[in-house]
Amino acid sequence: MSDRPFLEFEKPIFELEKKISDMKDFAIGEDFELNSEIESLEKKLDKLREKTYSNLTRWQMVQISRHPKRPYTLDYINNMSTGFIELHGDRFFADDKAMIGGFGYLDDKPVMFVGQQKGRDTKQKVIRNFGMAHPEGYRKAMRLFELAEKFNVPIVVLIDTPGAFPGIGAEERGQAEAIAHNIRQMFRLRVPIVIVIIGEGASGGALGIGVGDVVMMMEYAWYSVISPEGCAAILWRDAVKAPEAAEALKVTSADNAELNVVDFIIPEPKCGAHCDPIAAAANVKKAIMDALTRCEKMSIDELLLSRLKKYRAMGVFEE
């Protein structure tokens, strides 16, 4: 049985996993033959997993995206690339640990990786500021984007943030300007840009590094203008209403694909990326490589025009 933490709706699965594990331990210790009973329970477990994960609410998908064992940006980079060299600093103010980036190889293809990074334990969460970047993080990201453009290297962005940091210091240093500047400049970068939302994708914090030629989402990621809790606090003055907000916001990968906000959904291993990070990274790598291949079939001018048309076509409005 896995020692992973479990979410509330996963409790029946966890209890059955524990029962199977205990039965296996008992059979070994007492030299009993319980293979048929164990096999029957494992079939029951597979059916329970399939039933649970095929009937998830939007709020449950948000919970999966925040699972404490879910792979983060550096996990994906380390599992699907080689030769990664992290680069630091925005050359203006500081090195934001919530935003990471650097050159690496996908097979033999050099790429520039950029993305938000969360922490596992309390110390790392504080250092990484829970994946919420300051203005210097977005300025570092743009510095790396422009470096990639200089050396004609495609850009791969991995998004996982509950939002840009809303603190007073961040606002004083131009948080909104840094994000707006990035959005404008990303439309002008003369290299292919592939975006993958691997976990949380909230508001301008995500969009500040989220303009690309191909935008993809992990199956259990979420992407919206605001977090469900933030929406609930504004509309109902009560964060407990977050599940209702998640339904109204349509935050899931399927919702975003239906609305043409994202181009592709990357499937996750059974029960989510946290259950098999290696397989999840393999799926992400394949999707990125396929996307880069499609982008490279177009000239740079065609790519820039396509990128602009892609975002202009989003949304419904009346004049």
Task: Supply the key terms.
2-enoyl-CoA Hydratase, Chain A, domain 1, single chain, 14 helices, 319 residues, 8-stranded mixed sheet, alpha/beta, 48% helix, 8 strands, globular
Can you give a write-up of this model?
- The chain is an alpha/beta fold and 319 residues long.
- It folds into 2 domains: 8-55; 62-312, 2-enoyl-CoA Hydratase, Chain A, domain 1.
- The chain has 14 helices and 8 strands.
- Strands 1, 2, 3, 4, 5, 6, 7 and 8 form an 8-stranded mixed sheet that branches.
Structural class: alpha/beta
Helical residues, percent: 40-55%
- Strand portion: 15-25%
Using DSSP, what is the number of strands? 8
How big is the Rg?
21 Å
Number of helices: 14
Name the poorly predicted regions: none
Q: Name the CATH architecture of the largest domain.
A: Alpha-Beta Complex
Question: What's the arrangement of secondary structure elements?
Answer:
Layout: H1 11-30, H2 35-53, H3 58-65, H4 73-80, E1 82-86, E2 99-106, E3 109-116, H5 122-127, H6 135-150, E4 155-161, H7 168-172, H8 175-186, E5 193-202, H9 203-207, E6 214-218, E7 222-224, H10 228-235, H11 242-249, H12 253-258, E8 264-266, H13 277-295, H14 300-312
Parallel strand pairs: 3-4, 4-5, 5-6, 5-7, 6-8
Antiparallel strand pairs: 1-2, 2-3
Helix pairs in contact: 1-2, 3-11, 4-13, 6-8, 10-11
